[in-house]
Specification:
Blueprint (H helix, E strand, L loop, with lengths): L1 E5 L3 H19 L7 E5 L2 H10 L2 H17 L4 E4 L8 H8 L6 H11 L4 E5 L2 H5 L1 H9 L3 E3 L3 H13 L8 H16 L4 E4 L17 E3 H15 L1
Parallel strand pairs: 1-2, 1-3, 4-5, 4-6, 6-7
Length: 228
């Protein structure tokens, strides 16, 4: 039984639920579905804490979520967001359960395709802080991120549009231009390093291979469920 810490945002958590169940059905057939527990947190107070850098408080919120899932019978955990993997160690310490780390499974998917230099799109936290970047680098990848102004706009679109269910053609075009610019600088693939970006950008929108972290993470969850 896998426990999912979700709600950050619920729009992408909905994708996780669908993808994991589709994956289980594809492997087992018939009416099979996934043995899951989901705790969906309220994102507004977490977003406010992100804005002030109160990561210890956020770590306590997610650790509490992990403990609640563990008490309900979860044998492993998945944090259904890229940014909040910044507090993965707090959740690990509170539960001592196996956690499927989104950056690790994404790095493995990239290396499986034989790529070494990738672009990373996500929140400002994900694009610029070591908690995510360094795991990719430690896996042997080179990571390119957008310039300052582009990072700010990529971040704004995530919080003001995608997390609120708005999928605008103008924002899709903006992301496409950012991806093209990074491809011109040598990126061989692009990580959609925020679980909402996959709602806006598909492979057809990119000149280089797209690595949708939501889909990759959900596939890893399917493997976890079928291996235990």
């Amino acid at each position: 039984m896998l426990g999912i810490i979700g709600g950050m945002s619920w729009e992408s958590t909905e994708s996780y639920y669908r993808l994991i169940n589709e994956g289980i059905k594809a492997k087992l057939g018939n009416l099979h579905s996934a043995d899951l527990l989901l705790h969906s947190v309220d994102f507004a107070p977490i977003e406010a804490l992100q804005a002030t850098g109160a990561w210890d408080e956020m770590g306590a919120i997610l650790a509490n979520s992990g403990k609640r899932l563990q008490a309900a019978g979860a044998q492993g955990l998945l944090i259904a967001t890229n940014t909040m993997h910044k507090v993965v160690d707090d959740v690990q310490a509170a539960t001592n359960l196996p956690i499927i780390h989104i950056a690790d499974v994404t790095a493995a998917a990239i290396k499986h395709q034989g790529l070494t230099k990738v672009a990373l799109l996500g929140t400002q936290f994900t694009m610029t802080q070591d908690f995510y970047n360094q795991r990719l680098i430690d896996a042997g990848l080179q990571v390119l991120i957008p310039e300052n102004d582009a990072r700010a706009e990529v971040h704004r679109i995530i919080y003001e549009e995608l997390c609120q269910g708005q999928l605008l053609a103008s924002s899709r075009q903006y992301y496409q231009q950012v991806i093209q610019d990074l491809a011109n600088k040598g990126a061989e693939g692009v990580i959609l390093g925020c679980t909402e970006i996959g709602l806006l950008i598909q492979q057809a929108d990119s000149p280089i291979p797209v690595f949708d972290t939501t889909a990759i993470h959900a596939a890893a969850a399917v493997n976890f469920l079928l291996s235990h």
